[in-house]
C-alpha cells in the first residue's frame, strides 16, 4: 500500500485508519473524500519533533493550507501547535472562523487585495509575506490606519528551479512570485522597507517548488537564503531573525515514488542553515517550513462508484466513475499520476490496465490511465489513493456537479468535516 493509513481487511475491503471504506461509501454516498485524521496528526508531529530535535526547537512548522482548507483542518493544526500558511482572504476567514490563533498565521500571495490586507492586519495575522513593492506601500498605509507595526518577511526568488527532473540554478527565474536576488531587487526592497514606519522586516521566505524528491535543491536554497541574510546584515546593518524555506516535499502517489524522509530533510537543512550562519557570523535564524501536500496528501483517498465500463477492443477499457475532474482536477491540469484500486475487492489480483474516466463533458476528464485492475463491474467501489492534498481544495462545480463531502476517520470512527454540496447550494448565489 502506498500510504501507511491504508490496509486490507479480512473481508477484502480497503480500510483507511482501520475503517472499512465500502461501509463509508454506503453510509455517506459517493463520490466521497475520506481523510485519516490520526495520520494527519502523526505527520504534523513528525515535522514538529524533527525541528525540536535538529534545530533545538528554534523553528515553526506551518501547514500550507492551500493543500486542504476547511474549518476542521485549522482546528487540528491549532491543537497540534502548528502555524498555518494562508494565501487568500477566504483561507484567512476560514481559519478565523475556526478560531485559529492568528499570531501563528503567515499570509502569502503575489497580489493581495487591499481588502485581504486589511482583514489580515485587523485580525493581527502573525506575519505577512510581502511579494512586491506595490504591496509593501499598501501594507504600510493599512498598518498605519490600524496603528499597527506589521511584521513582514519578503518572498525572495533564490534562483533555484526544482520543477525539473534534476534541478537547475539559474540567475533569474521567470516567476510571478517574489523579488529577485540576482538583480539586487531583493536587497533594494528590504532597504526601502527598513525605512517605513509601520512595518518591521523580520525575515525572508522562499519556496522552490512542489512534489520534490531530492534533498539537494532544498539544501542549496537554505544556503543561498542564509547567505542572503548575512548580506543584508553586511550591507544594511539589519539583522533578520526568520528564515522561511517554504514547502514542497514530495509524497508517494505511485509505488515507484521515493520521497525523502521528512525527518532527514529537516536534519540536513538545519545543518546547512547553522553552518552557513556560523561561517558568516550571523545568529542562527528561526527556521520556518511550510509543508502542505506531505501533511494531508497521503492521509486522503477518494471513493467513487463505478458506472459504465466501456471496453474498446484493441484500444482501451474506460471505467467511468461518478466524480472526476470536478473533485480531482490534477490529471487534467498536470497529468498527475495516481494509484487506484477496487475498495470492495482490494486484494484481488489486477488483471488488466484500465483508464478511469470522470463524468464531465470533457474528453480529458480522466483520473488515471493504465491502472492495473481486476475485472471491474458497475457498482464496484473504486478508490483513488493519496488524494488528501490539492483535490478538495481545487475542486470545482463544472457541469454543476456538487462537491463531495469530506469525512474524517479517527480512532476507528468517522465524522463529516465538510458536508456534501446540494443542488440548492449550487443555485444559492444565482439571481
Ligand atoms: N509555501 C508556499 C509559498 C507555496 O506556494 C506552497 C505551494 C507551499 C508552501 C506548499 O507546498 P507543498 O508542501 O504542498 O508542496 N496545485 C499543485 C500544487 C501547487 C503548490 C503551490 N504552492 C498540485 O496539485 O500539485
From TrEMBL:
GO BP: lysine biosynthetic process via diaminopimelate
Q: Which residues form the Orn/DAP/Arg decarboxylase 2 C-terminal domain?
A: 34-388
Assigned protein family: Belongs to the Orn/Lys/Arg decarboxylase class-II family. LysA subfamily.
N6-(pyridoxal phosphate)lysine: residues carrying this PTM: 66
Q: Under which EC number(s) is this enzyme classified?
A: 4.1.1.20
Binding of substrate occurs at: 293, 330, 334, 362, 390
The protein's name: Diaminopimelate decarboxylase
The keyword Lyase is assigned to this record: yes
User: What pathway does the UniProt record associate with this protein?
Assistant: Amino-acid biosynthesis; L-lysine biosynthesis via DAP pathway; L-lysine from DL-2,6-diaminopimelate: step 1/1
Instruction: Please tell me whether the keyword Amino-acid biosynthesis is annotated for this protein.
Output: yes
Catalytic site residues? Answer: 361
Q: Name one GO molecular function term.
A: diaminopimelate decarboxylase activity
List, alphabetically, the InterPro entries matched. Ala_racemase/Decarboxylase_C, DAP_deCOOHase_LysA, De-COase2_C, De-COase2_CS, De-COase2_N, Orn/DAP/Arg_de-COase, PLP-binding_barrel
Q: Which UniProt keywords apply?
A: Amino-acid biosynthesis, Decarboxylase, Lyase, Lysine biosynthesis, Pyridoxal phosphate
Q: What class of enzyme is it?
A: lyase
Quaternary structure and interacting proteins, as annotated: Homodimer.
Stated role: Specifically catalyzes the decarboxylation of meso-diaminopimelate (meso-DAP) to L-lysine.
Q: Gene3D superfamilies in the record, alphabetically? A: Alanine racemase, Lyase, Ornithine Decarboxylase, Chain A, domain 1
| NCBIfam families xrefs | lysA
Binding-site list for pyridoxal 5'-phosphate:
248, 290-293, 390
Domain Orn/DAP/Arg decarboxylase 2 N-terminal: residue ranges: 38-296
Which reaction does this enzyme catalyse, per its entry? meso-2,6-diaminopimelate + H(+) = L-lysine + CO2
For activity, the cofactor(s) needed are: pyridoxal 5'-phosphate
